[in-house]
Structure formats: C-alpha cells, structure tokens
Specification:
The complex is a heterodimer of chains A (163) and B (496). Chain A is α+β, with helices and mostly antiparallel strands. Helices cover 35% and strands 12% of the residues of chain A. The longest helix of chain B is centred in the middle third of the chain and has 16 residues. Chain B is globular. The chains are: A alpha+beta (163), B alpha/beta (496). At the A-B interface, helix 2, helix 4 and helix 5 of A face helix 1, strand 8, strand 12, strand 16 and helix 16 of B.
C-alpha cells in the first residue's frame, strides 16, 4: 500500500530545542481562557516576534489548525512575524493628535528618517509605525519610542533614538 | 517633608520619572499618585512642609533645586494654587474620580462600603441600580439595570462579568486614568456587579496600549486577593469572585462587545451577530455582563450617596455624573467629572479656555472617531444622551476633541473612512469595502469639486449605516456626514 505524501501519521516529528522551549513556554496557557492570544504575547515577548515557522508548534499545543493560528496572528496589529528592528517609533495618528498637528509632525519625522509611516529605515535600524491613540489626548501629539511615552512630541524627540 | 507626585501616563509621558530621580537625589521620598486630571499641568508636584502644602506644575528635574530653595522666601514661577482649590477641580462633582490623584493607587482600600453593599440582597442591588438610572458609559447608553437583571435571571451554571477596558476612541482617556489612579474603584464595582448578577468570574479586557494601567491594575488585584477582596468567600460573605486581566493585541474593533468576547476567547476579534445578546449568551456562550470601565466604577458611588440621590443628578434620563474629557487643540485639556447637562461650550471655553493655538475654534468632535463634528452654533447643546441625539450626535465615551480653523474637514471625512478601513474586522461587506470606497472617493475631492461624488458618498453612507453588522461600519457615516453637511465649503475642491 502506497502512502500519500500528506499522510503524516507514521512520520517521526523532529522537534528542535528551540521548538521545545517554545512549546514548554506556551503550554501553561493552553488551559486558560483566551490562551492562544496570551501565548502569542509570550512568544513575541520572548523571541521578539512570532516566527511563522512556529505556527505548527503553537497549533499543536492548542489543538488548532495552522490556519487558525495564522488567522489570529494576522488579525491583531501588535503581532509581528518578522524580527523587530533595533528601534520602534510609534506616532499617534488619531483625531486628538491631528488637532495638535500630528500630520505635520509625521511628515517631518518621515523626512528626518527618510522613510515612510509603517516602514523601516534603509539601514533596517528604525521602524516607524502608526498607532491609534495612546490615551494622552490632552497632551498631543503623542509618540512612543521603544515603549517610552512622549507627550507634546516634536521632531527633536528623535534624539532619544541612539542608533 | 512629604513629596507627592502624579505618576500616571500623562505624567510619565511628560517626564515624571526623571523628576522622581531628582527628588530622591535630594533625599526626598516620593509618594506616587494618579492624576487629578488637569493634564496640561502635569507633572504636578505637591510638597508638604510642616503641614503646609504647596503645589507646582510642569515640574522638570532642572526645576527641583530652585523649588526646594524657593520655599523659604518667595513664590516660585511654577507654583500654582493647590489642586483642591483650583477652579478647574473644585467646580467638579466627583463620584468616580473622587479619590483619583489624592490617594496612592495601590494602597489597601477601605472596604466598609463594599461590606455594606454585600449585606444587601442581589435584588435590592439591582433595584438600586434601576433607581439610580445608570446607563452604560461606553457609548451606547443602554440602561444598566436591564442588562443586570437579564444576566441575573438567566439560568446558567456559570456567568461572567467582563470589563471593557479597550478604550480606543481618540480623545478619551477616562478609563486609563481611573485604572491608573484608583483601580480599586473598578474592582469593587465588579465585585458588586458579580454578586448582584450571580457571576463568580470577572475579566478585565485591557488594551495593550496601556502598559501603565496594566501595572497598577495587576498590583491592585494582587492586593485584593491578599486582603480577601477577591477569591473564595470574600470578606466572609459566602460570595466567590475571581478577577483576571486579559491584554488585547491592538484592534480597535475589540471595543465592540461581541468582538471583545471573541478576542477574550483567544480568537480573531470578529464581531458576532446579535441576537443572542451577551447578557444571555456571551463569553463561552454563558450569560455575560459586559460593561465599560466607567460604568462599573460608577457603581460604588451610587451606593455611597444613595441611588435616589444619584438619580437626581443630571438631566432627565441622563442621570448621575459623567467624566468628560477634553483634548485636541485646547489650552486646558483634561478630565472633568460633572453631572450630565453642561453645554459643550462650558467645557471647551470655561474649562478648556479655548484653543491652544489661539486661533478661532472651528469644530468639536464628540464621542470618538465614530462621533459627529459639531459647528460653533451647536456648542450650546447640553451634554446629555437626549440633547445630543436631537442634533444627530452622541455622547459616546465622553470625549471632546477641539479643532481650530486650520482643520480641513474633507481631510477629517477621509480619515473617518480610512480609520474604518484599518480597523474593520472584515466580517461584513458594507464596512470592509464601503470604507475603502469611501476613502478613495473623498480623497478624489482633494482638488476637485464634489459634484456627483457627494451623492455617491451619501449613498455609500446609507448602505454602511443600514447594512453593517455593528457600529463600526454603522457609525462611520456620522463623522463623514456631519463634516460634509455642516462644512460643505471644504468639499468644493478649493481649500478655504
């Protein structure tokens, strides 16, 4: 009897140390409510991003299909599937910041970094991302550099980024 | 000498951490509190020497030296009246934010109010909520007692309380401020709600953009468990209530209650068709009371002053207090808790003191990205659910965003569609595709007269409003239409 190439039943699954570490790390979340999203936060915190190569491990631990895991990862703005650059700059693009000149600020930042919103600098060191509200609306425009919140942001605040 | 300094996100983003380092360098121990809500003054520092308190605004590390020296002789440039006497604060009526900025956020709470409420029967509590007239503070304004009673009377082996802390509307920050200044208010509100409805598990769905709030909430929950405020047989009352935080992952749509429940179950945050209502079949198909942070944090205040007295505050069916938030191009942005009923103008002019740029005010957007743009004339509208509905607007989450006369309303209409495009869950076509078409069409009006495109957008808005599954697509037409109808001069292809 010939076996189909899609029949995995007799194949031995080879799991690397890294895969095993990931599986062990997310296993406690499998029994929790909303465990998949909690686990994805853990993976991203641990490895900096969610490597699509690991979807199969995550799916296995949560008894889901790879499609379901990919579906959740791709739905949320926070989850990234490529390694993060050294610096991440997020600028709020929402109304309260618009009223305080964030469109001009964004243009100035794009010019200074020579990159566009939601992309990286050519040296791959800095990523510029849009965010919709950091909750600092009375003190806009708001920016976040590597997790650090900045009220009344100006182009000068880019000096906080040390390449 | 005692130094108290606000350490909420407003203060953190204004550099409070380096101020604290400087204060410590001068051998001053620092008590960290939440914010009073006078955002433009942050970081606010209060120094107490020989029980005399002096307050300073916009404190920087460089100013500490001179502040400490100045005390002996004359007034410092940064000195301001104490917040309790500041007219921005003293004219407010605070029930939700009464302790905010005053007490450190994570000290062991006074449980006497909770104990007395847990002595009432669940029915008595729900009756009190009905008497108070409390309506959901998240945007829809649905009478709270109806939801409570539905959950309470629906038979089930398990019920849930879910706190919607996915405060994504631009121009709103009251949830964040409350969680950073007085997390116990929310926790106590959730315990009372759980007891009244028979729910023994609660979840706070917190947006990931609020790391400071997460830190305070987690500390508060840990203390609550230690003090037997949470867990089994809380306060020896035979009541069980467990509480957990769930951190979202960046999706505005998860502020919609069914999308939030999907996300809380670990799935894509795609909205569910209603019915069934979450109060009947919500989290994991069980009866679930979903309330916004401020709705739940309003509960203790109702029992503090009495349901009838709470119900007497405000105007008509808009009862109690509402934390309004003013932001955007405004001199004195911040949080103002008042009974329903002040006009938009009162908030923007009396509290806000007009535009920060000094230019004429052109519009105020009320109720977040799905809220209407108001004209100057409409600023005299009282802030109640009913009065705003009359002019086609909504109070939403209580956010007011001020724009000066440099705003291009065509650009704002385009953004309303763009935001819907970015944040749509994609489940229904009017929202998923309508937003894209809307953005394209408004964008084409940049330098060309509106003409047929105006009618096209009207049509599109009709479809989105009537055929979208939830309010994301259904309410995106509100900012678009208000911009087009009230500011037509911006849609004629020539910039004013």
């Amino acid at each position: 009897m010939s076996t189909s190439p899609h029949d995995f039943s007799n194949r031995e699954l080879k799991i690397s140390d890294k895969q095993q570490a990931l599986r062990d790390g997310i296993a406690p979340y499998a029994s929790q409510l909303g465990g998949l999203i909690r686990a994805l936060h853990w993976v991203q915190h641990k490895f900096g991003y969610i490597n699509p190569e690991h979807y199969v491990d995550i799916a296995d631990v949560f008894n889901l299909s790879v499609a379901e895991v990919r579906g959740v990862v791709s739905f949320y703005h926070d989850f990234r599937t490529s390694p993060p650059p050294k610096h991440t700059i997020r600028i709020c693009q929402a109304e309260a910041c618009q009223a305080q000149g964030v469109r001009a600020l964004t243009e100035a930042v794009e010019e200074r970094l020579n990159t566009k919103m939601n992309s990286q600098t050519s040296d791959g060191l800095i990523e510029l991302k849009a965010v919709y509200c950091l909750g600092l609306c009375s003190l806009g425009p708001s920016m976040e550099i590597n997790g650090e919140l900045i009220a009344k942001a100006t182009v000068k605040d880019l000096e906080r980024v040390k390449r | 000498m005692k130094a108290t300094i606000s350490s909420d996100s407003f203060a953190v983003a204004s550099g409070v951490d380096s101020v604290v380092v400087e204060l410590n360098r001068h051998d001053l121990s620092v008590i960290k509190t939440g914010s009073y809500g006078l955002a433009w003054l942050e970081p606010v520092l209060e120094l107490e020497i020989d029980s005399v308190e002096t307050t300073y605004r916009n404190v920087t590390p460089q100013a500490i030296e001179s502040i400490l020296k100045s005390r002996a002789n004359k007034k410092h440039d940064l000195q301001i009246p104490n917040i309790e006497t500041h007219s921005y604060y003293s004219t407010q009526q605070r029930l939700v934010f009464d302790d905010s900025g005053i007490k450190p956020p994570v000290t062991v709470p006074d449980c006497s109010l909770l104990d007395s409420v847990l002595n009432l029967s669940p029915t008595e509590i729900i009756d009190a909520i009905e008497t108070s007239g409390l309506r959901g503070r998240g945007g829809a304004g649905f009478p709270a007692h109806i939801k409570w009673r539905t959950v309470a009377t629906t038979e089930s082996d398990q019920k849930y309380i879910v706190c919607n802390a996915d405060e994504g509307d631009s121009g709103t920050f009251s949830d964040r401020m409350l969680m950073e200044a007085d997390p116990f208010k929310l926790i106590v509100g959730m315990i009372i709600t759980g007891y009244a409805t028979g729910a023994t598990e609660g979840y706070i769905y917190l947006r990931s953009e609020y790391p400071v709030a997460l830190n305070f909430l987690q500390q508060a929950i840990d203390i609550a468990y230690r003090e037997n405020l949470l867990g089994k047989n809380i306060r020896d009352s035979n009541i069980d209530f467990d509480l957990d935080i769930f951190v979202g992952a960046g999706a505005y749509i998860c502020g919609e209650e069914t999308s939030l429940l999907e996300s809380l179950e670990g799935k894509r945050g795609e909205i569910r068709s209603k019915p069934p209502l979450p109060a009947i079949a919500g989290l994991l198909g069980k009866p679930t009371l979903v309330h916004n942070v401020i709705s739940l944090a309003s509960v203790p205040g109702i029992f503090q002053i009495g349901a009838a007295e709470y119900g007497a505050l405000g105007v008509g069916r808009s009862t109690g207090t509402m934390p309004f938030q003013i932001s955007g191009n405004v001199r004195q942005g911040g949080l103002i808790e008042l009974p329903f009923g002040p006009t938009v103008r009162t908030l923007v002019e009396n509290y806000g003191q007009g535009t920060l740029s000094g230019r004429p005010l052109r519009t105020v957007q009320i109720g977040g990205p799905l809220g209407a743009y108001l004209t100057e004339d409409e600023l005299d509208t009282p802030l109640t659910y009913e009065h705003l509905m009359e002019i086609g607007a909504g109070i939403g989450h209580g956010g007011l965003v001020v724009f000066d006369d440099t705003v291009d309303m065509r650009e704002q209409a385009e953004y309303a569609f763009e935001f819907c495009e970015i944040e749509s869950c994609g489940k229904c076509t009017p929202c998923r595709i309508g937003s894209v078409r809307g953005k394209e069409t408004v964008s084409q009006m940049r330098n060309k007269p509106g003409g047929d495109r105006i009618r096209l957008i009207e049509d599109l808005c009709d479809v989105m409003e009537k055929a979208s599954l939830c309010q994301m697509g259904g309410m995106t037409p509100i900012p678009v239409r208000s911009a087009m109808q009230k500011f037509p001069e911006d849609f004629r292809g020539v910039k004013p």
